[in-house]
């Protein structure tokens, strides 16, 4: 990270945003504890289904999930 004008707070914000976008925080959380191979397969399969469903929604082949109406 490049710190300009001694603005460390802004450099940290940029660094955190880049790490979030690359999925580093999620990976660190996953690696904190041992994950059984069967749990890993279940998680990876669920992620693949989610990615596929999201792709189909972008292409307009399936409708996006409805949002719950807020009670006012």
Task: Describe what this molecule looks like in 3D.
The chain is built from three helices and no strands. The protein has helices at residues 8-22, 24-31, 37-59. The protein is mainly alpha-helical and 72 residues long. Helices cover 64% and strands 0% of the residues. The chain has one domain (8-59). The protein is extended and about 50 Å long. The model has no long low-confidence stretch (mean pLDDT 89).
Layout of helices and strands:
Blueprint: H1 8-22, H2 24-31, H3 37-59
For the sheet with most strands, the description reads: none
Oligomer: single chain
What is the mean pLDDT? 89
Radius of gyration based on Cα positions: 19 Å
Classification by helices and strands: mainly alpha
Number of domains: 1
Please write the string of helix (H) and strand (E) elements.
HHH
Ends apart, CA distance between termini:
45 Å
> Tally of extended strands?
0
How much of the residues is beta strand, in percent? under 5%
* Helix segment tally: 3
How would you sum up the global shape? extended
Helix content: 55-70%
Question: Which stretches are low in confidence, meaning pLDDT under 50 for 5 or more residues running?
Answer: none
Keyword list:
single chain, extended, 72 residues, mainly alpha, 3 helices, 64% helix
At a glance:
With 72 residues, this protein is mainly alpha-helical.
């Amino acid at each position: 990270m490049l710190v300009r004008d001694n603005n460390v707070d802004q450099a940290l914000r940029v660094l955190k945003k880049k790490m979030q976008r690359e999925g580093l925080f999620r990976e660190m959380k996953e690696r904190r504890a041992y994950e059984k191979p069967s749990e890993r397969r279940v998680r990876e399969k669920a992620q693949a289904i989610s990615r596929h469903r999201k792709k189909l929604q972008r292409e307009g082949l399936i409708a996006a999930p409805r949002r719950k109406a807020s009670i006012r």
